[in-house]
């Protein structure tokens, strides 16, 4: 099993944190993992993306040229990655910041009004974790439990107060994806 995902959005949306959490969860499960971050010229507000691969076998390259899965947080990222997607791949979109439909008919699309869900949870800062939870439920690169454990490692010290809401966000994203999958 090898699962790769591109996570893309604006700097400051938690793109890298989502990738790091996924990579940490894979590592904790004893899998091979790569995490390849890429930033635009500005860190906050510029473009940011990362490629994460989780595999049962050694990984040949950390670069994902034709994504089978993508977590897309904004319109410029959809414009960039939609043409690259593999046929029958899955795109998990933050519908709040993407005002158009996906043009391709040969990919699966899960649109989540992630900002609305995040507001109901109590913080718009957890949009990334909602989308990550949905991805984990759909593609199953790691268990949801491993994602929660990885969050516990990353959200320590002053960030510890954010742990509970991030765990709830991952769970909510997973729940939305289960409904999308029909169960």
Automatic annotation (TrEMBL):
It comes from Caldisericum exile (strain DSM 21853 / NBRC 104410 / AZM16c01). Residues 11-174 form the Pyruvate/ketoisovalerate oxidoreductase catalytic domain. GO terms for molecular function: 2-oxoglutarate synthase activity. It holds the Pfam family POR. The keyword Oxidoreductase applies. It comes from the Bacteria. This is 2-oxoglutarate ferredoxin oxidoreductase gamma subunit. InterPro entries: 2-oxoglutarate_synth_KorC (IPR052554), PorC_KorC (IPR011894), Pyrv/ketoisovalerate_OxRed_cat (IPR019752), Pyrv_flavodox_OxRed_cen (IPR002869). Keywords: Oxidoreductase. Gene3D superfamilies: Pyruvate-ferredoxin oxidoreductase, PFOR, domain III (3.40.920.10). The keyword Phosphoprotein does not apply. Its EC number is 1.2.7.3.
């Amino acid at each position: 099993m090898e699962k790769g995902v591109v996570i893309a959005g604006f700097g400051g949306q938690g793109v890298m944190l989502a990738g790091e959490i996924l990579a940490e969860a894979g590592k904790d499960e004893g899998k091979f993992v790569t995490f390849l971050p890429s930033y635009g010229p500005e860190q906050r507000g510029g473009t940011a993306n990362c490629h994460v691969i989780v595999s049962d076998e050694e990984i040949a390259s950390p670069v994902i040229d034709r994504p089978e899965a993508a977590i897309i947080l904004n319109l410029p990222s959809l414009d960039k990655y939609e043409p690259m997607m593999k046929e029958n791949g899955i795109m998990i979109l933050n519908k709040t910041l993407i005002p158009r439909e996906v043009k391709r008919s040969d990919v699966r699309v899960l649109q989540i009004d992630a900002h609305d869900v995040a507001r109901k949870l109590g913080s718009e800062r957890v949009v990334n974790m909602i989308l990550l939870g949905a991805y984990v439920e759909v593609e199953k690169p790691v268990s949801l439990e491993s994602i929660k454990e990885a969050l516990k490692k990353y959200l320590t010290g002053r960030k510890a107060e954010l742990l509970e809401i991030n765990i709830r966000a991952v769970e909510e994203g997973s729940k939305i994806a289960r409904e999308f999958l029909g169960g």
